[in-house]
Amino acid sequence: MPGYELFGKEEMDEVMAVMKTGVLMRYGFDKERGGVYKVRDFEEAFARYLGAGYTLGVSSGSTALKVALTAMDVGPGDEVIVPAFTFLATYEAVLEVGAIPVMADIDDTLNLDADSIIDKMTPYTKAVIPVHMCGAPARMDRIMSVCSKKGLLVLEDNAQSCGGSFQGKKLGTFGHMGTFSFDYVKTITTGEGGLIATNDKNLYLRAEWYHDHGHDHNPLVTRAMEGRTILGFNYRMSDLQGALGLAQLSKLDRIIALQRKNRDMIKEALKEVPGLQFRTMADEEGDTATFLGFNFPDEKTTMSFQKALSTRGVDTVCFKNNLWHYVPNWEHFLAKSTASSKKYPFKDPGYKGQVTYRREDIPRAEDLLGRTLFMLIPLKFAEGRLEAIQEAIAKAAKEI
Ligand SMILES: *Cc1c(COP(=O)(O)O)cnc(C)c1O
Predict the structure, then answer these.
(1) What is the pTM of this model?
(2) Is the CB of 158 within 6 Å of ligand 1?
(3) What pLDDT digit, counting tens, does each position of 89-109 carry?
């Protein structure tokens, strides 16, 4: 998962090239910057990597979601379908634009279940956010087919599976828009940062205007003289982040190859564990292998295997118990404790729907996430670490 493991001379050189100009802003200062435009170069390189028409660098993966929802005109009165298994930011972004997140179930890939979209749809549903969790793709063929039949907008949250694909097409390019995160622990990192991809010029322009106070970015005039479009805000990426992004992007395929190699070695050891099954993949080839997921027939065996590994210094995550990635555990969200004393948007009088967030609403997530463990796959093993993991697995297998 973490691109910072490969920080080196490339990142230093890119950042220094920006420092030497003294211009950290991505726009303007055309004379002073001597032709150095790192965010612009990063966007172009990322668009080529994805095979996407347009890309926009922004300040984080969370703001990427918010800017994309805004560009798609999702707002007050609308509902957005989001899987129960995701990072909190996906739900927060929906609330940030004044819309209501509707919790949907997952399928055996542990990503959004296409059938659940139909179950959770109401007359207020405007968009769907599939999230490619823990490195691996959702079933985008089924999700796109349901959404196009029902006329729903699709925004892919691809914060966790950067560089992954489904049936040969890069994740983040299936929906109307797709978002990426480059925070400190993601596959490639710019410290904080995010990016939006789309093939729709109109959606791109709305995002570009909104993320920079409505500037029309007319190349023929100076920044101060640019035209004003829609009202917006500041969600810009800085040129230091763009510089880091360029260096990290050039290593992305190497990062994924290393993760796959290391995953395969751990997978080999886990194959010997009785009753263990690996996470179902919608497309094995498209898995970036940031994590390795596996399950047991019941929660009791799962917990005892987790404990047996952890006493030997090997950590795994059970997301049913995780405080940040599973809706039923977010007590502040369930209490509708937004920053607004009026509990906006939950109590928005313009919202006509009725939303519930009960465990009974998501039976497959309750079952599958309780019997699944995830192991983070590093890019590099410290001396003797791989052998220690293999030995811990072999011993734990005898105790369950
Ligand atoms: C990390 C993450 C985000 C948010 O990205 P930030 O850059 O940390 O704001 C959004 N969605 C998912 C699924 C994530 O894992």
Answers:
(1) 0.98
(2) no
(3) 999 999 999 999 999 999 999
